[in-house]
């Protein structure tokens, strides 16, 4: 959904539900499930506030099984007009938290995709207590009880382990 800044009414725009965004994400496996946005304008500056809920397929970083991550993200974005080409402008503190728009248009699909991607976990886990893969035999310890002996530490790290033990006493 692309909105024209000059067409934003004084009272702003309220968007609820996902029907206004039939395909907001480039990756079609991502699904937008819920959305509330308020678009308002003060002069040339446009504010977009609200929240979104989305689901995206991920791979667990411990057991390597696919799962679907649920993202809930708050949206608080300020858009300012893009400076003209060749125009120099010193950035202020507020400018570092702003986005820009060109040709009187703001692409809300791109904003939703960015906010959803930023809401993904840095270390995706299928569940908090995921046991991961056995480092010896590689079996998924969530699905199969592994009888492998615990992995002993690498003897090359013994000096550092001794130091860590001394520091934690």
Features:
single chain, 169 residues, mainly beta, 5-stranded mixed β-sheet, two-stranded antiparallel sheet, elongated
What do these coordinates show?
There is one protein chain. With 169 residues, the protein is mainly β. The protein has helices at residues 108-118, 158-167, and strands at 2-4, 13-16, 31-42, 45-59, 66-81, 98-101, 105-107. The strands form 2 sheets. A 5-stranded mixed beta sheet has the order 2-3-4-5-6. Strands 1-7 form a two-stranded antiparallel ribbon. The longest helix has 11 residues, at 108-118. The termini are far apart. The model has no long low-confidence stretch (mean pLDDT 90).
Provide a concise account of the structure shown.
It is elongated and about 70 Å long. The chain has two helices and seven strands.
């Amino acid at each position: 959904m692309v909105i024209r800044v000059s067409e934003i009414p004084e009272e702003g725009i309220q968007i609820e539900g996902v029907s206004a965004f039939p395909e907001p994400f480039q990756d079609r496996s991502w699904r937008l499930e819920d959305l509330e946005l308020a678009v308002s304008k003060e002069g040339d500056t446009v504010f977009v506030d609200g929240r979104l809920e989305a689901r995206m397929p991920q791979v667990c970083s411990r057991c390597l099984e696919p799962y679907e991550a649920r993202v809930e993200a708050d949206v608080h974005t300020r858009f300012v007009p893009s400076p003209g080409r060749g125009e120099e402008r010193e950035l202020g503190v507020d400018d570092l938290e702003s986005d820009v728009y060109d040709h009187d248009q703001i692409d809300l699909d791109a904003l939703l995709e960015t906010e959803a991607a930023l809401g993904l976990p840095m270390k995706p886990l299928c569940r908090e207590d995921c046991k991961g893969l056995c480092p010896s035999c590689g079996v998924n310890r969530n699905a199969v009880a592994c009888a492998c002996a615990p992995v002993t530490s690498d003897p090359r790290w013994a000096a550092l382990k001794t130091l860590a033990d001394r520091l934690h006493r």
